[in-house]
Amino acid sequence: MPPFPYTRRDFLANASAGVALAAFSLDSQAAEPLAETPPKLSLTSSFTTVHEPKPLPFNPAKLDGISEKLIRSHWENNYSGAVKALNTVKQRLAVALADADTPPFLYNDLKREHLTRTGSVVLHELYFHNLGGSGKVGETLQQALAEAFGSYEAWEKEFRRVGAGLGGGSGWVVLGYNLHTGLLENYWLADHLHSSAATLPILVLDMYEHAYQMDYGASATQYVDAFFRNVQWDVAAARLEKARKIQAI
Ligand SMILES: [Fe+2]
Prior knowledge:
Layout: H1 8-16, H2 45-48, H3 68-98, H4 104-129, H5 139-149, H6 152-166, E1 172-178, E2 184-189, E3 199-206, H7 213-216, H8 220-229, H9 233-244
Antiparallel strand pairs: 1-2, 1-3
Helix pairs in contact: 3-4, 5-6
C-alpha cells in the first residue's frame, strides 16, 4: 500500500488488487489527495468485511461413509473457493460503487454474484457444521418434527425424497423454520440463490455432485444415507432453539 498522501487513484488501484478497504471512504468526492490521515470510515461493514474460511468443526477422518479426501476437497476447493470469490466480488462492488459511471445493469451483475457467493458460503458453513455427529436425533428435534410432520420418520422420508430429486444435479435440501408461517418445513433449493423467504435453516444437506461423486459416483442415495449417519443433531437443535426465540415476522 502506498504511503499517504493517498490519492483516489491509489484507492481504486488497491481495491481492485484485493487490498483491504477498511480505511477509506467511497463517498468522498474530495479533490486529490484525499488526506494526510485516513478519513473517517464511511464504508459499511457490508463492503469491508473480509471473509475467512471457517475450519471444519469435526475430524474429517472420522466421518462414517464420507471420506476424508472428499471432505477436504469439498472444503478446500468448493467452500474456500466460494469464500475467496465472495471477497473478490465485494472488492469489485466497492470499486464499482465509487465509480458514478458504472451502469446499473453492470453493477447488478456484481450484485447477482454477491447473492450467489453469499449463498454458497453460508450454506456450506451450515452444512459442515451440522455434520460430525452420531446421527442420533435428540428429543427436541424428534418432538418438533413429529409435531410438524406427524412423525420423525415422515419428516425424514420427505427430506430424503427432496434429496433424491436433486441427485445427478445440484442444489440443497433445507429443513427450515419459517419465521412468517411459524412452520418447520423441508425446502428444495435449486442452487445457492434459492432460499425460502424468512426462513432460518435448521438442517442443511449439500446435494451438489461435488459433495458425493468422489465416494459414491452417481449414487446420491448412498450419500444421503451416509449424511444421516453423520448428522450433528445437537447443532440442529440449537438452531431451532434460537429460531423459536425470534418473534414471527
Ligand atoms: Fe458443496
